[in-house]
Amino acid sequence: MKKQSLLLIVVLFSGLVALAGCNQQAKSGESNERPKQKKDLYLQLYSVRDDIKADFPGTIAKVAEIGFTGVEAAGYADGKFYGLTPEEFKKAIEGAGMQVLSSHVGRPLAEKIADTNWEEIWQWWDTAIQAHKAAGMKYVIVPWIPAPKTLDDVKAYADYFNQIGEKVNAAGMRFGYHNHNFEFQEIEGQPIYDYFLQNTDPKKVFFQMDVYWVNRGGKTPVEYFKKYPGRFEILHIKDEKELGQSGAVGFDAIFNHIAEAGTKYNVVEVERYDYTPLESVKMSYDYLIDSPFVKESYSK
Predict the structure, then answer these.
(1) Average pLDDT over all residues of the chain
(2) Domain shared by 143 and 221, yes or no
């Protein structure tokens, strides 16, 4: 009886200690769940294009609440971003606690390149470059060009990129080109993407690789990292819909070889969704936050 009584006292005492610990934890607001690691991830605002049209400040606030470090714009026109002056746009993004990183913007050459009005082209770029500088951009990126039909067309665009890059550099920013999948087709035996990489000056032109479109073009990002090391200063991290859901894009391989790419920033883009845009964006953000192969930062 004495042993049983002693055992009962020990059990009761242990229970009281555990209960006190739980009460203390509840009072202090502590949780056994570890906070998620903060990582430098940026959002291409095209991902929330419809939300932005309906409510720009509210959408930006929600993007910041998800945890993104900063944004890449896709709404430049006539010297403004989403209808805001460059200064207003910068203030809105920074006021939400994020950074202005980059912008998708471009002016294609004439369909028949010989008919291009170069004076008009360069006037347009001068205005755009000054607006991007005033908005605090680090990078100015052409997101798309009409698919070239001849190797002369490819050469003309490579020369064009070098000239834009020179102007952007002079304004204290970097110029880049963002691919889709047509660039992995060959013209006269030359893959378009490889021609651009081989015939642009690395000091003037970097490449914002869209890893999803590389995959759709029948190639892998890693093979390009190895073939052209250091050329991919920004990556577009994208999948068929939400990140990591299709199983078609090898994100672990991409991030495990990212040092070869020369990447400093990763920009999330979600073009198509199974949920609302903001839900899909948050799922994609959480996928990268929860992936151990994604480092905290690549710019340090």
Answers:
(1) 91
(2) yes
